[in-house]
Queue: 2 jobs
Job 1
Amino acid sequence: MPVLLLITLLVFVLLHAAPGDPASMLLGQENTAADLEQARRRWGLDQPILVQYFKFAAAAATGDLGKSFRFSRPVKEVIAERLPATCELAFFSILIALTLAIPLGVWSGARPNSWIDNVGTSFGLFGISMPNFWLGIMLILVCAGSFHILPSGGRSTYGVAGAPQTGFYFLDSLLDGNWAALKDAMLHVLLPALALGANMVGILMRVTRSSVLDADTEEYVITARAKGLGDRAVLWRHVFSNALIPIVTVAGLELGTLLSGSIIVETVFAWPGIGSLLITGVTSRDYPLVTGVVMMYTVAFVVINLIIDALYAVIDPRIRY
Amino acid sequence: MPSSILESATDAPVATREARRARRLPLKVVVGGAVVAALVIVGVLSPWLAPHDPQYQALEAMLKPPEWLGGAHVLGTDNLGRDILSRIIYGARVSLLVAFAVVLISGAVGILLGAISGYFGGKVDFAIQKLVEVVWAFPALLLAITILAFLGQGLFNLILALVAQRWIQYCRVVRGQTLSLRDRDFVAATRALGAGSPRVIWRHILPNLLQISLVIGTFSMASAIISEASLSFLGLGVPPGIPSWGTMLADSRSYISTAWWLALFPGLAIFVTVLGINLLGDGVRDLLDPRLKRAMKH
């Protein structure tokens, strides 16, 4: 909690001390000084920064993040509207990353210096070296521009999705039984999720490989082999389950990077999530909106780390808190 | 002929070969080092290497394809008729400057604070670690975006925004290492000889932290290049007047379907550079101390 308070104070002071007047930026140049003054008073910008901060913190404690200058709506509402898109994108990126990285890392670690290890290691190195926004542009170029097999941006084709219920298009289309909408949502999320998940594939693959390599020489593995267990059983039941802690730790840490990455990938794919909302807020000096989004990101990051800590005890029963 | 003589005759060249192989630099270091050296050379010599002025706008030659597709410029021209190869060559300067500045400044700040935190402990350690905790809670790019929203675009501001989070990596690792170093015999002996804390830290602790800092620095350089390009792509990093790989990619977005070369080459430059630096980092880590691999991992 103290960390969160310090973070909000830091963000608040940084944004409010920034040069440039949000009132004149949002109202335009043709307004009179009186109009600008009135707007500043209405948004509370005429008060000292610390007074503004304490008012914000007191309201935030009750769940009120203020009103967006740009959208003239409560920040909470604007964020809630965009959040499902970012969650959906993050979910599919993680899914892609785990599906590719873990088998590749386990096979590479189990057969060091084999052809599969060489392929896996190169794949990992490429993944961590690839700028996700460039990968996104290249995917658009090839899959949307040249072959026209996947859409280049957005969350759905106009008119295909039904009325939003939860904001999660996958869930909504399942609830409606609208299979065309489900397929459409899946096609739309594929490219941004691939672009966003590529770095995570690289990092997770490398960690999985080295964890498996470490665990492979442990005595319990030798014992399992001596008992006559098959290679596959030893690998997945003994080596992999014991290599999980570093994998989960890094996956958790990488979620933070993934959240950062979503800001830029959403911009490339015109994905209407909170990442692109943040950029809109920054360019229009929408203080309440930016503070709200930054707070959301940091709270999510802190909560993810807490969940990861709790997961350790599930993965390794020897760990007790 | 006795078998022992035969064995020693065949073993000797094998042993020499193995010794020679062991002395040879790993391939990762050679390839990665070559990429970094190329980046430095291209960055420093860009005014002599670039075939054209990177800012010159030949409006009659807008969006011309690369030479092998019939254009007059090696890698083609952009939407304002500027030579893409020259802009990539000049863009290396920005990447080089940002990468080295970020690594040096964040390294200096992080190593110093980490060493002080670990050596003194107590309230100093508590205060520094609280600061680390606050900054650590920000996803990296998010803090840089917030700082750049405050400071505005600019090369210096960009470096500052990137340093703001990167010093933590050094600080955390160096603090841990210092905690174990401060109780070693050689530190106790130096203190017994009358050396003050600054001297102990400067002469005896810091030199022992250089290896691990070098490894962190290499990886930090790669991430600084990607972050610089990302922020410039978002329009928050390098001002539009300065050619940089990130701004080139941002400019390319409107022409993806008509002029693919605008997006391909600057992105390839970033990718190859980062790949080279990561290879170098991996190689240096393995070369310096295999145990570092484990220390970095935990």
Job 2
Amino acid sequence: MAAFGNNKGDGAEKNKPWTIGKRIKILAFGGATVVLLVGALASYAFYIIDGYSATVDEVYVNQWGTGTAMERAVRTADSHFRTYITYREKEEYEAAIERFSKINQELSEFQEYVKAYDLPALKSVLPELESGIPDYRENIDKYYEAAEGLNSSDNKTEVATSKAITALEEYINNPDAEYVQKVQSVKIDLMTNLRSVYQRMLYAGRTDKSGLKDWDTIENGYQNIAEDVGALANEVDQDTDRRDQLSKASDLINENISLIKEIRQANQVMMAQEQQALKVFESLMLDVITATEAAEQGTRDQVSLTSATADQYLWIILIVAGVSVIGAVIFGLFMERSIISVLKKVIFKLSGGAKQVDASAEQLSQSSQELAESSSEQAASLEETTSSLEEISSQLKQTDENSAEAETVMKEAKPLVEKGVDAMERMQGAMEDIRESSDETSKIINTIDDIAFQTNLLALNAAVEAARAGEAGKGFAVVAEEVRNLAQRSAEAAQNTSDLIESSQENSERGAKVAEEVSEYLQKIEDKVANVSTLVVEISAASKEQTNGVQEINSAMSEMDNVVQGNASVSEESASSAEELSSQAAELNNVVDELTALVGNVNEKTKNGSPQDSWTNDSNSVNSNGNNYNRGSHSANSNRSDESIKNQFQNQEFANDTELIPFDEHEDDFSSF
Amino acid sequence: MSDTKVLGQEADSSSNVEVDGGKFLTFFLGEEEYAIEIMKVQEIIGLMKITPVPKMPGYIRGVLNLRGKIVPIMNLRTRFGLEEVENTDETCIIVIQHEGYLMGVLVDKVSEVVDISTSDIEEVPSVGAGEQSEYLSGIGKVDDSVKMIVEVHKVLFDVPEAVLNKS
């Protein structure tokens, strides 16, 4: 959201619009980040709780278990001990003693815990345990010893009493014996006493001694018996054998009495020891329970700590999750709005496009109609053209004949021209001869002129000589003057002749030039004749080609006819294309509807554009146009309208593209969000 | 022109004019006609081969062999300060004899032998520079034309000795 805020606020960022994919990515990344955060928090909480539970698991539960085991073991030992107290069976004692290995094992575990962990409660109770357990065992042992002593005394008493009874029976069995009755009663008393001892011994461990004869009565009983036997022995002292028998019994009974005392004392010791042992047991039990309770307390503490930590982190996670959910909802709402606004614009443009496609379809169908009309016009034109072609064909035949005639005429003209050229050449030769003879004449005239000049000089010299001669030379001077006149006249004549010859030379040269010109013209005429004949040949060939061309045009006309018919079918196809186009526009409209349904409410902008409302009517009109066309069309061709439609399409596409591309232009719409 | 004036002039100039009337050989330099006393003319010859001689004045074309005699040839146009022209068919050489020396004179065209009376010879008008008047001894009038009479000595033989020694 912060990133979006930057984007919104910064104008320079407008060139980089957010694509929908980018927005969704940001949403996903944000969600993932929040989940990661919460997960990390939860993981941390679990780590801490794991530490607590590990402590519980490793320490307190074990301690508790150890304590419970020790308690059980001690109780078992106590139970065996008590059983032993009651029944004085050695197996019970051994079972009780056997428990102490277990108890010591548990104790050593306690010691290990105290060493390994910080357990103050256990540590404080441990010394008492360490002293109490051996103490308890010692007491049990002592009790055992006392009980064993009691047993042995009891056995001795029984033996002694049995012997005394045997002695009394021997006496009774003697046929000579006196006081058999009395001895018999003593014997019964003795047996009763022995039974009392049995009973007493049997219940020696019991605290409840009711119904039992106490040791004093037993002892008194034995003493009474001993007095009775002693009295009997004194009465029966005539016969030594019998007296001995009685005294022997008396001694045995006395021994019994001392034994009973011994038993009594042992029993008392035993009782005291029992009390001691029970006391020790109770204190030990207390200690064991204390240790167990310490473990229990530790466990409880840890559990409550765990619970507190769990609560704390649960709150934190709940708060973070709640904030994230609120943030996600807000961001999601914003995203939804921005994407929907974009989609709405797209829908609006798509609707516009559908409308334009529709309009274009209509235009296309109109064009198809025009195409059909122009096709029929073309067909008419084709017929006219065909008739014109026939005329051209007949004219071409005429041209062909004329050109052939011209060709023969030109062939006749050629030798005539050649003859003219030949005559001109000969005339030029004659001219040249005239010029040459004129030159010769001119030379002769020059010679005459020279002679006249020399003559003049001679005449002048003669005049000079004549002048020198004075009077004698006067006649000579006249002659010289005449000669000089002749010379001058001949010079003038030569000059005149020369002029004439020059003019004739000029004339002849002019004639030569004219002859040359005529010759050139003749030559040109010859060339032209040749040209004309080649042209005539070419015209002839061209007219033939034209004939071929006209035939080709004929075939082209038939092809054109085909093309026109093809155009008709094309116009039909274009009509069907227009229909298809309109159906595609409808499809497009459906897509727009789907998109609109997807987006939800389309705002007023789209409605105002009303591409959907106008759509159905337009499509109908297009369809009807297409049908009309199909009925009327046979041949048409109108590239111009096609192109115009194409251009229109391109323009529309281009315009739509440019409108669609700049996503950021509407960024301001978001800013209001 | 009145007779009195002509006579007056004649009287004035008679003392100054150096030449007497008589027969003159006339020739052309361009359009102008000059005249030389016929007694001083030895002969007239056509154009011959003129051999140029080094170290001669500009107006001496060279020398030619006239039947065994070496005759220096003067270009009278150059001497008179006129522009030079090409030789033509009518170009002639007039050989002048004066005080035992011979001198050929190259002229454009020889004209005729005319009689100029003394009365028809007039003094050279001293309008131009003195040298020009020195080259003419007078101006002869024949019909309507004017013939300038060349002062033979001054023009042809008042030349360096070396030139004259050639003849």
